[in-house]
Amino acid sequence: MRYMFKRSYDADINLFKHKAQMFWYLALLVLVVALPWLIDDFFIGEATNVLIWAIAGMGLMVLVGHTGQASLGHAAFMALGCYANVIMLQRGVPFVIAFPLAGLITGVVGAIITLPILRLQGIYLAIATLAISVLTEDFIIIAEPWTGGVSGLMAPAFDIFGISINRYVTPDLFYFLALGVALLVLGAYRNLLRAPLGRAFVALRDSEISAQAMGVNITKTKAISFGISCAIVGLAGALLGLYAGAFNHETFNIVLSIQLLLMIVIGGLGSIHGAFFGAIVIGFLPQFIAISRDVISESFGLGSVFIPGIESGIFAAILIGFILFEPSGIYGRWVKIRTYFELFPFYRKGMFKRQKSFLKTERMK
Amino acid sequence: MDYSQLIVSGLANGCVYGLIALGFVLVYKATEAVNFAQGDFMMLGACIVIWLTNGDSLGISFWLAVPLTIVIMAVLGYFLDLLVVRRLFGQPQIAVVILTIAIGFILRFGVGAIWGHEPRLLETPFVGKNLQFGSVVLGFEEGAVIIVTLALALALYVFFKHSKLGKAMQAASQNQLAAYYVGIPVKNIQSLVWALAGVVAAVSGILFASKGAIDPSTGLLGIKAFAAAVIGGFGSLPGAIIGGLIIGLVEPFAAYALPAGYSQLAPYAIMLLVLIFRPAGLFAQMQKKKV
Amino acid sequence: MSLLTLENVTLTFGGVVAVDNVSFHVGEGEVFALVGPNGAGKSTIFNLISRFYNPVKGDIRFESNSILKRRADQIPTLGIARTFQNIELFEQSTVLQNLLVGRQIHARNGLFSQMIFSPSVRDEERRHRAVVEEVIDFLELQPYRDKYIAGLPYGVRKIVELGRALATEPKMLLLDEPASGLSVEETQDMIFWIEDIKKQMGITVLMVEHDMNLVSSVSDRVLALADGKELAIGTPKEVQSHPEVIAAYLGTSIAEEQ
After folding, report:
1. pLDDT tens digits, chain B, 291 residues: what are they?
2. What is the ipTM of this complex?
3. Contacts of C73 in chain A (CB under 8 A)
4. Domain boundary at C169, C187, C202, which?
5. Between A and B, how many CB-CB pairs are < 8 A?
6. Which residue from C81, C111, C125 is facing A224, i.e. has the nearest CB?
7. In 3D, which of A160, C86, A129 has the Cα closest to residue B289?
């Protein structure tokens, strides 16, 4: 067990709780920076994919995990970021301006268009955002002069201060781009959580009425949360567009919206770690299935087995497993394992047990 | 252009939406969770009846296949709650939402793996038959859809109003703890509500399959049925049917009046407008939390 | 000088009159208690002051300005903080984090400075923490500082809620049944704290309470309500012996016998 002696308020304000924690995170940082020298181009591409999912996951986590507002429509905002970025690039705006601007536009638009639905609670909000996602798909088709309609758009070549970045030609550079964005978003997110705004988000999540009584402006705070969430997801969308090379309305369909939400649930709602864990699962699942399929068909001599849609099937099965047996996600499981070792041999089984109760109605008569 | 034809086909579609919405509302009223897989339930019901009836598979008589499908779906709904959903008792709504979304994924995958992804049609005894009312030619299926929906709605109304079980369900949906105290087996009631949702899904699936082709992604129709449930107010059974009919009627007229590409926006646009201006729906009431 | 004034405030829900033409004022530095049977409209008056409800008639003034034009979240910025009857804490957060939410109205840094956690944000955080530590000291919450609310006993939660209200540095505290569910010892502590809040901190207290022991030991004046109407106002003793108050509590027949 570790005993901590706090000598100043900064001990609670700082990003890392103690030196050892800082050491492990720095080690992780060194590892991810060194990754291009450790694994080949194909896996760097996959790692980039995971990072993009993680950025999108962080975006949604701000809203769902920390502000407690469910959204089933975030593919719409990924689409907005992606199209805004590519449309600007196509018109000659340099990447270093177009990319952040795409995030900003998505954030502002996201905050504004969700303004009328912010007073909706729980399930109603989820359904309203679902409608936004469905409508966006159709809007992309209608806005053909800008979006290329059904045939979609091609991401143009882009460079940062003269260094050309391309997923296939310079996969390492693309990886570093995604990593840089992920780290910036992560930094801002962590900072927000230890600042008043982050506390206001969590307050809103846990009790709207008493957040209000403590001076939190509900509508404004929700709108800011939506704005930040959409901006981050917009950046992820912009990266996804560049990563995919070509995209159309189907790239950002309703299934993507749902997948995003499911991803952060698997990872663990309410923690930034959860976004990354979820991204790793969703990013590597197709590879994992492909590899295990090969192994199975080779060892049993079945030839090539192909079942369409098996990814989503297995993904859903994993998800059901988590919801039933570990609702706090991978991160929650990790915390339990860590606590077990930290307290060894004093860990009790009921330590993290949640109280089950009859429904306290959220629906008012 | 013959409006009456548009109205009839719109009503028939609306009935199917309304029935799926009815499934949402049943489960929502009982458990305050939304079964996002209701659309996929409908798809599964349709696929089961096709599997039982169609000549290229089992080829059982249609009249035997229909009750069989209903029973299978009811049992499925019951056990789904008993074995899976019930474990989430007392957890936040969103957990059940995510669970049912995942169940929907699995159903879609399972149906695709078993019966393939080709769209298939149900072979009913009345394929190609028409009913004629004056100048309106009504496909027999469309007429049947409307009549069956009305009959089912009426049966549910009588069930909730007059049967002991129906009253117990209502009580459990209004206050679980109080219902438990007066001796209503709340958990078991919830499983029965899921069974009922299975029955409604089976009926809507059979009706849908009799007038349109079914493939695993048909379940995504559930999203449109959300619009119906929201318009109806999510807590009102007649509201769900009426919401479905509104969506069903709006669709063909939007397609007729609006340029291509815009018409499919109509149901969702209406839903958003209802959510913005009357978030409790047109037929239900909702209030702020009391402190 | 009167800090809070209610003037002919009326609130109806549908056909039910929850608060019927109630007027009273709370003087600066006073401890003022609202008593009355359940459903008398006491908590409703709190919710009116918190601006969760809109009165259909009348005016509520704080420091001689009407608060009816303010939103609910602006009320604490005026200097009115409150607790809730059924504890409304942030369950998934620690005691410290809960108390820091009380500092929300004193947060001055913009979105961008918070994102980069600029030195001014850090300075502000230290100041918030210092205030919160004073509250922790005052209420003796040190053992629970880093504990999550979800695992705390009821009595402690009640105190944390009081602490969260104090962390806003209010001019006036609204305490909704501060002693309900507390043990005899805990109630005794609550009495001392309320006295200290009044004397040391100079904060005016308006409370709803059923425990007449607590009411008579701390309050300067008491207003008795029944069915949304004022019954009697005065010192705890006067109100307790008022025939109409006794009638409201014990039923009319006993009052008539007396």
Report:
1. 567 778 888 898 899 999 999 999 988 887 778 899 999 999 999 999 999 998 787 888 889 999 999 999 999 999 999 999 888 877 777 788 889 999 999 999 999 988 888 888 888 777 667 777 666 677 788 888 889 999 998 999 899 889 998 888 888 877 778 888 888 888 888 899 999 999 999 999 999 998 888 988 888 888 888 889 888 888 788 889 999 999 999 988 888 888 877 888 888 888 888 888 887 777 654 444 444
2. 0.91
3. 212, 215-218
4. C169
5. 148
6. C111
7. C86
C28, C142: one domain: no
Q: Check B97 against A70: CB less than 8 A apart.
A: yes
Query: Both C179 and C68 in a single domain?
Result: yes
Contacts of C52 in chain B (CB under 8 A): 288, 291
Residue C193: domain span = 1-79+170-258
Please check whether residue B203 is in contact with residue B148, taking contact to mean a CB–CB distance below 8 angstroms: yes
Which candidate from A134, A310, A319 shows the least CB-CB separation from B98?
Answer: A319
Place of tokens 């009391």: B290
Q: Which residue of C has its CA nearest to B289?
A: C52
Q: Which of A130, A142, A307 sits opposite B223 (nearest CB)?
A: A130
Q: Say which CATH number the domain at C187 has.
A: 3.40.50.300
Contact A207 C89 (CB under 8 A): yes
pTM of the model: 0.90
Digit-coded pLDDT (tens) for C88-134: 999 889 999 999 999 999 999 999 999 999 999 999 999 999 999 99
Residues 6+ apart with CB under 8 A from A53: A236, A263, A278, A279, A282, A283
| Domain count within chain C | 2
Name the DSSP class of A253: -
Q: Which residues of C57-76 are buried (b: 16+ CB within 10 A; e: fewer)?
A: ebebbbbeeebeebebbbbb
| Residues on B contacting C at a C-beta cutoff of 8 Å | 288, 291
Interface with B, mutate which of A134, A206, A311 (most B CBs under 10 A): A134
Nearest to B89 among A132, A356, A363 (CB): A356
Neighbouring chains of C at 3+ CB pairs under 8 Å are A, B
Domains in chain B: boundaries:
3-217
Q: Has residue A155 been placed in a domain?
A: yes
Which residue among C169, C192, C207 closes a domain?
A: C169
Contacting partners of chain B (3+ CB pairs under 8 A): A, C
Using a CB-CB cut-off of 8 Å, the residues of chain A touching C100 are 196, 199
Residue type at position B235? G
Residue A205 lies in a domain: yes
Asked if residue C84 belongs to a domain, the reply is no
| CB within 8 Å: A199 and C104 | yes
End-to-end CA distance of chain A: 50
Nearest to B99 among A254, A261, A320 (CB): A320
Number of domains in chain A: 1
Q: Is C109 on the interface with A (CB under 8 A)?
A: yes
**Domain housing A195:** 39-267
Q: How far is B222 from chain A (nearest CA, A)?
A: 12
For residues C191 and C73, membership in a common domain is answered with yes
Cβ-defined contact of A213 to C84 (cutoff 8 Å): yes
CA distance B125 to chain C (A): 56
User: Is A176 a member of any domain?
Assistant: yes
Look at residue A290 and tell me if it is in a domain. no
Q: Are strands C31-35 and C204-208 parallel, antiparallel or unpaired?
A: parallel
Q: Could you read off the pLDDT of A138-195 as tens digits, one per residue?
A: 999 999 888 988 899 999 989 898 889 888 899 999 999 999 999 999 999 999 999 9
Q: How far is CA A218 from the centre of its chain?
A: 24
The rounded distance, in Å, linking the Cα atoms of C83 and C100 is: 15
In a domain, C108, yes or no: yes
Given C104, C109, C133, which is nearest A216 (Cβ)?
Answer: C104
